[in-house]
Design brief:
The complex is a heterodimer. Chain A is globular and about 75 Å long. Chain A has 16 helices and no strands. Chain A folds into 2 domains: about 1-30; about 65-285, MetI-like fold. Chain A is an all-alpha fold. Chain B has 2 domains: about 1-50; about 95-325, Orthogonal Bundle (MetI-like fold). Chain B is about 75% helix and about 0% strand. The relative contact order of chain B is 0.10. In chain B, helix 4 (about 95-130) packs antiparallel against helix 11 (about 245-260). Chain B has a two-stranded antiparallel ribbon with strand order 1-2. Chain B has helices at about 1-15, 20-65, 90-95, 95-130, 135-145, 150-160, 170-175, 190-215, 215-225, 230-240, 245-260, 260-265, 280-290, 295-325; strands at about 70, 80-85. The termini of chain B are far apart. Classes of the chains: A mainly alpha, B mainly alpha. Chains A and B meet through helix 1, helix 2, helix 5, helix 6 and helix 7 of A and helix 2, helix 4, helix 5, helix 6 and helix 8 of B.
């Protein structure tokens, strides 16, 4: 491709300016609310209501942080640990389960396979709110309502992860490798654990990240299942504190600071694992 | 005689010998196949155990519950028993103005949200793909950032930005002598659309961008040779090539939009415009856990489920028909 060809594809000066303006405005739209959250977290309650965001006279970031962890006997710290447990353990275990199933869908042949896969895809479509009441009734029958497991077990289920796992298995694990392992006399499961799982690494991390985000965001299921505040994840806890804020405004700075801290783990995960999820998105999108 | 025996012996031996290795071969192949199916079973069992317990049984339970009702004979003192009520719960749901109102709200929400989301994300992806955007990596990261913000926190941030007294946005408008109530009768749905758009625009943009990156450069070069300008190349060459992604994003956006719950639930703490049955999902929650009417909640769940499946199927059919027409 010569230089003239590529310059033909480039829009003219006016087009270029328009494109840059539109993208800049969009980036401001996505960034400014987060910036507001950061600035608001440094304000005392009174400064928050005076809307003087840029003045540094009422800087109370550290005090707000102290207040956050002292509020209601340190509930926030508990919620944070709970969220980490639900999300990190749930996503790790869930990703392993989904990817193993997706791999089996790609590498083995059996009767009615595509029908079964259709069932998995159909499960992607079903709204969580539809499942909530029956899940609650089942959990209450099993005596699991208001326990860690009532939230932890349902979030392991990730049919979209199976779909991704199948695509990744097709893309990353050549059938020849499995044939070679079989000729060498390696068992099927040993081959999966020792050979295939390594090749599936980036895919596994992508599914893990998808599920981590989903569980960290989860709000409906904990709201249905949990009544003990000590078991709440951050999302539900902040929801509750915010509902108290209209009566007792001392909750406002705490809710804002708590929101800021709740954003950090996912940002950290996305930045650290950037290399993997980018390739994963491509696989999921191009199909 | 000798010749026949001679010829017979090796033939017999061959006949006797030949099935033997093939029999063991069949057996070995069967054993291998059984081993493989066994491994396949082991790899699939955990997922399908989950599928049965947290998906199939709950869906079945919801359908079952929707046809039954708790009947308490003797002024509620006798033992509770379930009685078959047929379609009574469905009739109750479908004639309940608050449920129909919720469906209408979600329909309006989808009509505003989905086109804005798909067109906006695609337009941004095409612009970033055109190669003229400065600081492209930074722009992408900035647009993607809200995806890392949990839904309830996105709703919290925007709730504060919609609240007079706290919001710098409202203050800015006030300086220009414009009073704006983001949570009024006509603004509440657009305000919720804005939260969802803010949360998901960047994520879908990255999906489209990834698909655009996979478009072979020769195709675009060929269109340039044919005299297509940058805008025409984007709309008539690149866009049709990422149809699969457009369909996928549309369906996922639709499924999520129909479940609308988190944002209105949070906003309802501060806005009298949002009732406890604002959307079908909120209706289900309210029926099940506030009114304890399981039959009603289950019937509403099944209606929502049927709507979701029908609409997703409709989108798939519509796009595949458009595909085959294009092929013609």
């Amino acid at each position: 491709m010569s230089a003239t060809d590529s310059s033909l594809l480039r829009p003219g000066l006016l087009g270029r300016a328009t494109v840059n303006v539109v993208v800049t405005v969009s980036v401001l739209y996505t960034l400014l609310p987060v910036l507001w959250l950061v600035l608001a977290s440094t304000k005392t309650r009174d400064a928050l209501f005076s809307s003087d965001l840029l003045s540094l006279s009422d800087f109370s970031f550290l005090r707000n942080l102290d207040d956050l962890f002292a509020m209601d006997g340190g509930l926030y710290g508990r919620w944070y640990v709970n969220s980490l447990l639900y999300a990190v353990l749930g996503a790790a275990l869930g990703a392993l389960i989904s990817v193993a199933c997706g791999y089996a869908f790609d590498k083995y042949r059996f009767r009615h396979k595509e029908k079964l896969f259709g069932l998995v895809l159909a499960a992607v479509m079903v709204p969580q709110t539809v499942l909530a009441l029956p899940l609650y009734l089942m959990a209450s029958e099993a005596g699991l309502v208001n326990t860690f497991w009532a939230v932890f077990i349902p979030v392991l289920f990730n049919p979209f992860g199976v779909y991704l796992g199948r695509i990744f298995a097709r893309g990353y694990v050549p059938d020849e490798v499995l044939e070679a392992a079989r000729v060498d006399g390696a068992g099927e499961l040993t081959t999966y654990v020792r050979v295939a799982l390594r090749m599936l690494g980036p895919g596994l991390i992508t599914v893990f990240l998808f599920q981590l985000t989903a569980i960290w965001n989860n709000f409906f299921l904990p709201m249905v299942m949990l009544s003990d505040q000590d078991l709440y994840p951050v999302s539900l806890g902040l929801y509750q504190w915010n509902s108290s804020a209209s009566v007792s405004p001392e909750y406002y700075p705490v809710v804002i600071m708590g929101s800021l801290l709740a954003v950090l783990p996912l940002i950290l995960a996305f930045v650290l694992l950037q290399r993997f999820w980018r390739s994963g998105l491509t696989a999921g999108a191009v199909k | 005689m000798t010749t026949t025996t001679h010829s017979r012996v090796p033939a017999g031996a061959a006949r006797a010998a030949a099935p033997q290795p093939s029999a063991s071969g069949v057996r070995a192949r069967r054993a291998a196949r059984r081993r493989r199916l066994g491994a396949c079973g082991v790899l699939m069992t955990p997922f399908f155990a989950l599928l049965v317990t947290v998906f199939l049984i709950p869906v079945g339970t919801a359908v079952h519950l929707s046809f039954f009702s708790d009947d308490q004979p003797g002024l509620g003192f006798g033992p509770e028993r379930q009685v078959f009520v047929g379609l009574r719960s469905y009739a109750a749901v479908l004639t309940d103005p608050t449920f129909l109102g919720g469906l209408g709200t979600v329909a309006l929400y989808c009509l505003i949200y989905i086109p804005l989301m798909v067109v906006g994300a695609l337009a941004l992806a095409l612009m970033l793909d055109s190669g003229v955007v400065r600081l492209r990596a930074f722009a992408q990261l900035g647009l993607f950032l809200p995806h890392a913000v949990p839904g309830i926190i996105a709703a919290l941030i925007w709730l504060y930005l919609y609240t007079p007294g706290i919001s710098p946005v409202i203050e800015l408008f006030a300086k220009g002598d414009i009073t704006i109530d983001f949570l009024g009768v006509h603004t509440v749905v657009p305000s919720i659309v804005n939260i969802a758009l803010w949360s998901n625009l960047g994520y879908n943009m990255v999906v489209f961008y990834a698909a655009l990156q996979a478009v072979p450069r020769e195709v675009i070069e060929a269109s340039v040779v044919d005299g297509a300008g940058p805008v025409r190349a984007a709309l008539q060459v690149k866009t049709p090539l990422v149809r699969a992604s457009i369909v996928m994003v549309s369906i996922f956006t639709l499924i999520w939009a129909l479940q609308l719950f988190t944002e209105p639930m949070l906003l309802s703490q501060s806005s009298p415009m949002i009732s406890s049955r604002f959307s079908p999902s909120m209706y289900i929650y309210d029926a099940a856990f506030t009114r304890n009417n399981y039959g009603l909640a289950a019937a509403a769940s099944v209606v929502l489920l049927v709507c979701t499946i029908a609409l997703s199927y409709g989108v798939t059919r519509f796009t595949s028909r458009a595909d085959s027409e294009e092929a013609r």
